[in-house]
Queue: 3 jobs
Job 1
Amino acid sequence: ILPSIAELEIDVSSPTPEPEKVEINSGLHVSTDKLNTLLRQLEVDKLYPNQEEDDILLSPTPIHRHDSVQERPKLRKCSSLKTSRTPPVTPGGRKIVRFADILGLDLSSVKIFSDQIPRIPKAAFEDLDVNMSDYEVGSPISKQSFLPNPTPAVTTTSLVPMFNQPGGESHFFQTLMDRKVCLENAFMDGPSAIFGVVRVLNISFHKSVTVKWTVNDWSTVAETRCQYVKGSSKGNTDKFSFKLVMASLAVGSRVQFCLKYDCEGEHWDSNAGNNYVFQVFLN
């Protein structure tokens, strides 16, 4: 029996059943279709976090409800949501981060130095407020942080004559005529040596000049023979030279000497009985 027109109108005008909904929490209900769509999107974001949505072909994966308590998957915030901590990115694009291990590379590089000093390139210190010219090869060594041990001060001494040079005196030749022998000049020749020049009166061809000297106030006496200076004859005078070499002397020590001239007798020059004195001073 066919239904009447009135019955058909009643069936057509009857309300469409509402879609099935799932209760998320108190007061929040989401339709099953919408929940399926959100969960599929979360799975896609988890598998392809760096891909654009248009590049992925989604296949619907419906979620079936069970009468027992359903195990809900953990929800994750959608990557499209922005927060105040989200760094600025290029409009219309996503920031893609790839690690070296994705490309088959190592995440770290290890080098073992067995018999050499590690050398750090100078470019690594460009941002530091330092002068690279002050650094040696390898790791920098700051002059301010690692100062070398100061070199100990070297003490030196000098032999200083305690008399005026006789050769510079205006009456030098008159003194020579009286003594027949006279020291012309003497000076330090090295830290422990004295060099001097003696002028003698040319009395005869055979002559010799000797220096008698001491470093301990005549407790012991040493003698040094003078050498004739070739081409030094001037009028009736000749020149002889000498060099006194002694051991290292303490500061304050005194070297005393006098001259003996052997030519038709002995003739002496002892600086008028005071002797010629050199004293050791600290520089």
Job 2
Amino acid sequence: MSAMIRRYPKMLSYSLTHTLIPKVQLLRTLNVSVPAIIEPYPQIFGLSIKHNILPKIRYLQSIGVKDPMRLIMMTPQVLSLNIERTLNPKIERMKAAGINDIPQLLYANPQVLKLNSERNLVPKLDFLLGRMGLRTNELQRCAAIFSLSLEKRIQPRFEEMEGTGILHKSQKTSNQTERQEYVRSLKRWMLYSEPQYQKALKAAMQRSRGGGLRSIDCAPDDKNGDDDDGKERVK
């Protein structure tokens, strides 16, 4: 409770009867864990049920999200986003890019909904689908990349991997198995911490000079690099 108050002290000024209890009751009727929502996002107490929370749930359902509360539990901040100015432009951009299964992409990384459409989401879509050669149906499997910085992580690493010749030939293949390996390995390379990335890059280049496999799947299988904290990384 003290942590919630520190994050949102304004909640102390709200009416217990007219504001706090109705929000808790609503969450219970929606069959979600109340602490899972209010602890990371106590600002929900400042949102209108009629004009904010319920319209967001209906909007998510309208774009094909069958379990909107699952998505909201993953990223409760979505409740504070404006539908017309923030949410819908992102969805329309994803549709324009040819992404058909938008709900699955959102489940894989709901932080996508918090990205600025023009300055963040669109440039990343352009780079992932263009320069990196990913296909729209592959984005879900590497959705964590959307939380990384394009200028400081995604683009420079990809260009370095291109320049050093360690990209897998499966980047342009139609073979499904090779495509899956390309997407899996590309995600792992992007999510490596900087020390892990430099170590993997050095190992791949050494193998290259030694006549070994020159491909993206030279990356060591380090599970510590395949995580995502939902924040845009800049290192």
Job 3
Amino acid sequence: MIGCTAARHGIVFLDEVDKISSKKGGQFQRDVGGEGVQQSLLKMMEGAVIKVPDLSGSGKKTIDVDTTNILFIFSGAFSGLTNIIQRRTNIKPFGFTSETPEDKEGANATDTIHQSDTTDHEKDEILRAVEVDDLVNFGMIPEFIGRIPVFAVFENMTTEMLIKILKEPRNALIPQYETLLEMDGAKLKFEEEALVAVAEKAKESGTGARALRSRLENILLEPMYEAPNSDIEEIIITKDTVENKTPPVYVQRSKDLVVSTDKFVIKQTEPPSMKVMNPPQSQA
């Protein structure tokens, strides 16, 4: 019961809450996981005693948990919410200064593309203007949104943030690949321009940090096959390797090997100096 008492003053974090938005469809279309799930969460959010199955036993027993003092945090991507906010905040001009259809047809196509293409900073500014009506139009029921007092917007990841994700965390991706190649006797090195190119490629995909692993897998697929049972000492990933898919730079351990010069770089190594010891003098 000690754990149950502590749980009554805890925090519940529910991710992907935008997936339970109600879908507006036809009369015979079922709204699976939409409005019904939101209705079932209302009682839990407003503070009530709910019955939770006891998983430690047979599962038939239940434990009463009071959710009055539990903090609920909901998060989600809410893809398409920016379009709803733009439709609400867009004020069309009228009168003598309004733009006629002839002016729109004569506009430059490049200008139209740049006007429709919003940067990440502009998307962040649009999301900061979110209101309850926008979330209702997205598919959340008013009763559910009304029980959430505070709304916060996370900014889109920048290139610098993605580079930090590649290098700094304890289980970062680049140290993982460095350890894998060290097991084969090779050292992995990324140039700074290559890291920037990887981060920009992942940013263009629109999936954020999730795209970093797939980008690295495509880049390091060939080196991970070349390194085992070879004389490769160092693998250098350049900007051209990321952008133009050119082979990485391979550094060999010895200069006596005959290899292709367009693929390998021979590292000039000097043998260690040998000490000549004086022979022992014979005693007369």
